[in-house]
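Let's practice the habit of predicting before peeking. Look at the sequence and jot down your guess about where helices and strands might fall. Then scroll down.
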Amino acid sequence: MGLFILRRFGVMLLTALCLTFVVFFLTNLYPNLEKLAKTQGNQRMSDEQVEAWLDNRGYLQPTLVKYGQWLGVMPGFQKTLDDGQFVGTCTRPGSTAEDTARYCGVLQGDWGYSTVFKDEVGTIVGKRLGNTGYLMFWVLVLMVPSALIVGVLAGMREGSALDRSLSTFSIITTATPEYVSGVIFIAIFTSSTVGLKWFKGTATQAMENPTFENFFLPVLTIALYGMGYIARMTRASMTEVMTAQYIRTARLKGVSFPNIVMKHALRNALIAPFTVIMLQFPWLLNGVVIVETLFNYKGFGWALVQAAGNNDIQLLLAISVVSVFVVLITQLISDIGYVYLNPRIRIS
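Done guessing? Here is the structure:
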């Protein structure tokens, strides 16, 4: 198991380097850099002025050099402009050549400086990731138990009225995008004209003082969409287990149906849903973009939209790196958990 984990970490590191380089290359294409120059400088800058602005700040260096500087394995770009301003990869507003580090990158714990929020990228990502983490926690608390219960109940008796009803409910929730269900919930439960006004708070207020009124709707919107998929997988797995030979043997021995479900079928039926549940973490981290934007909840997805819309390259890169590592870590945990849940699997 230890060797397996080490190999996976090696593959994860190589994958992370490849994916981050692709994102770095795409975000540093010249049209994006031109937009950045005009945003930070002047919208009426000529092509020569744009090129000079980019060259003075190191953006026109070779891509591999800039990627090495961003990682922190190469010294950062530094230059003093004609007006005496000191600029470079590691500079911050008001910094001088004496107090500027020579190396600054991801390996040094320096994620860069946000051109939109005017703050350290690491601070921004940590705060927004914390907001999304709190949202994800309550989504999982609502989504996972509900989906497992629905899936197990539907799969216990295949073809029954309960199975058809719960399966229809699962399909409807999965087929309804978050931006549709979110708008419906807002119109029904919060609108002052035709709504019931059951939830008077806003998700923005939930960042400082979360309550049931201001936090339940975004949680419900995300949970409903993911619930149907997990429930369908659980139902399919439960149906397959209930037709296995050892379940028939238990029935012939006179074991009660509840005991058959709880003691014999449930653990084997949860193997496939466990993998699906673990894969919900990357989806929750990136799939909350719509919900956070819709409810104006300033979390990780909201920061991604702001970074992409305002061409904040450093923030966009940091968010991409976090997303990559969340995907890789959850896949590793899923593989390890799958081995423990299914002892028949052997790691070669």
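How did you do? The mean pLDDT is 82.
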